[in-house]
Amino acid sequence: MIKNFIPTINISSIVKKNQDQKKIYLTIKKIEKACIDVGFFQIIGHGIDQKQIKNICKIGNKFFNLSNKSKKKLSPKKWNSLNKNVYRGYFPYDVNGKEGLDLGDLQVTKNYSNKIKNVKYFKI
Description:
Elements: E1 8-10, H1 12-15, H2 21-37, E2 42-44, H3 50-64, H4 68-72, E3 89-91, E4 100-102, H5 110-116
Parallel strand pairs: 1-2
Antiparallel strand pairs: 3-4
């Protein structure tokens, strides 16, 4: 493996409707190799529009530039006793050496969120 090389993996075989099992297997093996050899990878062939990606990055940058007090309003119960959620939300730097924001499944609707009463609904 080349030093300072970030593998690029085309995942279109996984996200296509009529999937070829052999191609899916080969893609998964590439992902496995990248995780073992490098620790991370970048993907192409995901079908996400570049405009959507830029918008998500803009929203992420805006969020992570907020004050710690503002970000912790979205923290799980461990860091914000007012929240009921245990696993989703903002995680401060001291958790694993980097900040994080776990929104969970963005397909969860506000009605569903209210019904189960332990998932915070985020509108992006």
